[in-house]
């Protein structure tokens, strides 16, 4: 869910401070020598990072407040036992998404860290739990109540309102990471309506107007994703179309590529593979103006998904090969921030889905198993998604007991995150396993799958000292 170009005014709002802790870790090595050490360490753990002296300089100057996940894994490998704050970086939740860069500039929050969780209108609110995955009581019918922005009275919207919209994008992404989309969508639509109201007030400065319009486009994509993952495909399509219109009006190729990327994914899930293919191709055309091989890799996977749905095996294999080649080019500074989820695990998982659509379930299972093994523990939600993919592929490739055991792991993970897509996948696995109910393992899974959700337990309260807990990831 993209950020504006690096030269956007929003990226210059928060003053930077030198990262002296990281400079001390470099020791007597020159920036170039240290960069070479980073690349060597990355190869030791199977990562690919394009670290050079300029990157090291940006870290030490404070321009890079928090590394992406690939760099984080490398740095943790180089300096065992040190956390990101130990290395002088800001906590990830304070920089997650474009809006975080302006949070310190006095943004008016649309969705704050202390926003209450509500189980329904009129129910008493409880503080947002952090420090780990939320209990089931938070996930069944609960979501953050999102206060609307303060639409200025008697004046036009300004930088604070634009920053508030950007902050809403960041907070919605974080909540989706932790809890999944179910229960969050309707409440997250509220700041989107408020953002549209802000646009109607008018903006004096052109740079602020651009931030507000593009922030609203990103917010529409975020809310659209929540609708998509909740199974509300028509709503998602509408939100994605709004974001695409914003991108076209303001000639923003990053937002346009992201909107078409999400539209392609939605069309695939809705059973419209030809539309998925055309949207992926449109996204690729928009991305030609961007210096991000990783983005183009993801878009090649979107194309592969459409071709797989059309039973075009040759075209799908060609797109998959392009996705792998572009992925191997490594991350770049210009990669959109919403793509933090896209690593080797996501690549393997999306490839598994392509082989599954082509009915090559044994090959799909191999890729799904790799996706689960490679997934960063931070992304609990994607672990559930890829484990569900693996269970379904095993169920359809002659391994019912392993499929049932894998399905049980998914059921356990679904006490932490909610996703209509994952539940739908698991329903298909259960149907495929019913003829094998004579197996005790299979019968146990089927009984557990058919059982009603456990009663909601006591609600835990927020522990600021432990914030943030492990989060999930979302395909975008």
Describe the structure.
This protein has 476 residues and is mostly helical. The longest helix has 24 residues, at 206-229. The protein contains 19 helices and 2 strands. A two-stranded antiparallel ribbon has the order 1-2. The chain has 3 domains: 20-88; 93-248, no CATH class; 343-451, Serine Threonine Protein Phosphatase 5, Tetratricopeptide repeat (Alpha Horseshoe), CATH 1.25.40.10. This is Tetratricopeptide repeat protein. It comes from Streptomyces celluloflavus.
Question: Topology, pairings included?
Answer:
Layout lengths: L19 H7 L4 H14 L8 H9 L7 H10 L38 E2 L17 H4 L3 E2 L14 H21 L5 H17 L4 H24 L3 H17 L3 H17 L3 H15 L5 H17 L3 H16 L15 H14 L3 H14 L5 H16 L4 H14 L6 H14 L6 H11 L26
Key words describing this protein structure:
two-stranded antiparallel sheet; globular; Serine Threonine Protein Phosphatase 5, Tetratricopeptide repeat; 19 helices; single chain; 476 residues; 2 strands
Quick rundown:
It contains 19 helices and 2 strands.
Total count of domains = 3
The biggest beta sheet is recorded as: 2 strands, antiparallel
C-alpha geometry:
globular
Number of helices: 19
Low-confidence stretches: 1-14, 96-148, 455-473
Q: Termini distance?
A: 6 Å
N to C succession of SSEs: HHHHEHEHHHHHHHHHHHHHH
InterPro entries: TPR-like_helical_dom_sf
Protein name: Tetratricopeptide repeat protein
